[in-house]
Amino acid sequence: MKYIVIHTEARKELDGAIAYYEAQNIGLGLDLLTEVEEALRKIQLNPNVGTPYKIEGVRRYVIQRFPYVIFYAELEELIWIIAIAHGKRKPDYWKRRQTE
């Protein structure tokens, strides 16, 4: 099983989203974290679970309960989490991260 590496900016996106939801309702931020962790487990167990994205080599996995999408790429030795993006945010803002 390949290990998961989360881009620093993707981690910041997740932390910001957790803080936002926690401020809206205590416990909601933890719910988001739980959903993301479950999605990451599914991706790790089956990297093809996500839908191929328009950028070659990138897949997307939609979080069910929250409006977030995980963009990732399966590399030779790991799964690279490129972005944990809000579904309504400017598309592809994270593209430059593919090579970082």
From TrEMBL:
InterPro entries: RelE/ParE_toxin (IPR007712), RelE/ParE_toxin_dom_sf (IPR035093), TA_system_RelE-like_toxin (IPR051803). Keywords: Toxin-antitoxin system. It comes from the Bacteria. Belongs to the RelE toxin family. This is Type II toxin-antitoxin system RelE/ParE family toxin.
